[in-house]
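The freezer alarm interrupted the setup, so I double-checked each line after restarting. Inputs confirmed:
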Amino acid sequence: MATRQTSSLARLMMAPSVVLLLIWMAVPLAMTLWFSFQQYNPLNPIRDGFIGLSNYALFYNNPAFIAAILNTLILVGSVLLITIIGGILLALLLDQPMWGQGIVRILVISPFFVMPPVAALVWKNMIMHPSYGVFADIARLFGAQPIDWFASYPLFSIILIVAWQWLPFATLILLTSLQSLDGEQKEAAEMDGAGFLSRFWYLTLPHLSRAITVVVLIQTIFLLGVYAEILVTTNGGPGYASTNLPFLVYQKALLEFKIGQASAGGIIAVILANIIAFFAMRAVGKNLDK
Amino acid sequence: MARTVTNRHKTIATAAAWIVALLIFFPILYTIITSFKSEQEAIQGFNLIPSGTLESYSAVEDQSGYFKFFLNSVILSVGSTILALIVAVPAAWSMAFSPTKRTKDILMWMLSTKMMPAVAVLFPIYLIFRDFGLLDSRVGMTVMLMLINLPIVVWMLYTYFREIPGEILEAARMDGASLWGEIVYVLTPMAVPGIASTMLLNIILAWNEAFWTIRLTTTNAAPLTAFISSFSSPQGLFWAKLSAASTLAIAPILIMGWFSQKQLVRGLTFGAVK
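Predicted 3D structure, all chains:
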């Protein structure tokens, strides 16, 4: 009796969160799905209503679409690669005994707390600007021609900024995981004559696997939605060179008012996110059972 | 002998770590330095020593009314966090203390709602906001940010609550504590640190949210993310002023972040890494 009471109370306590999230997820998504099958442009009085998969076909035939999907994957993949490898190296370095470790940690973690528009503008104007940026100053110091980064290498420039924002996150989590590695095990391996590389490969890396999984999952969630960094630097250009899927959908919806096409793009973004999330979530779920 | 080797090792590690750390921190440092330069100085090439003028700071407030955006950032991030806590604390509580077979599924489902790309619902949300008169309103943005971060808040609280031992409750019950007494005298003191960490982290996340805050606000409810983005237009490009505005926008959250490093790891990894 008492347990039944408790469990219904538990359900009642959970209800607000579950209901809110259900509404928040279902209603707008259903609307997007609906719009994706409609001919709908707020600026155009003619509405043909249901047009089947035409929006998807239009979106698919748009060269920008293929570019946007590729750019999204390249962006997510490159930033993951840079932050995981860089994060492991940095974590190994910060795990060494040193003077002023607390301050070093604070310096390294700081970029994570910088809001995306600030990060993007600071890199764009202070660091990578072709005439006033620090990179240009360095280039001139060596007598080289300064590079106009955002015009010549737009996607690479954005990857650099986003990686700078997320490297601290990966480092901090990997470092925390590293510090929980049993010291005795390390010493035992050292006594047995295991070199640095074999210790890293057989002991450290397996220990870090859980932390790496988590870093990949969390970063993927946020990296699939990179938006402000593109908005304030390249605005998706030149052409579609740095347009990712979120940015393309934004352009279609709020600049061109092609709601049907934008919605189709949104649905494709959901499918893409789900494919990636499926694998990531499984890994996290498995880890939680441990 | 061993001692000297260790010391040498330590010296090398220290030097390497400091160089890397300063390189990573450099863009922030240089922004802070530039904010104390005049516009003239700011574009005269690389220079780490500013004249120390405060003219950019006063210009940012005079010309663009920085304080209003700052206030909006505070209202939105703190408001949405408190709202999320009110909804999430009971949910996390019941999941942690009377878990069922479905608890894990519900938690995973909540996390999966975070996977939904914001752009996929941009237009519907825009329509809903427009029709309810919520565009550019603080109420609308607060609710929005609350919904976005709710899954993470539930998750974080759950991982903290799960560590409160259930036996303590039984012991209190044996001693004749009422349900109210249990909550006020036994559970609350043990839950407060977890709730505080969750709050801190969530304020940081809400403060830095830069998709909805930019798209759904114009002036009235615009926080610092929207304010800073307005500097991207070519007319608004003044290096020193941009630096001063940036420094002001990130300083409070940077300091909060420094204090919440440990909780950050726990919170954002859902307790999987401690």
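Quick read of the result. Chain B has a mean pLDDT of 82.
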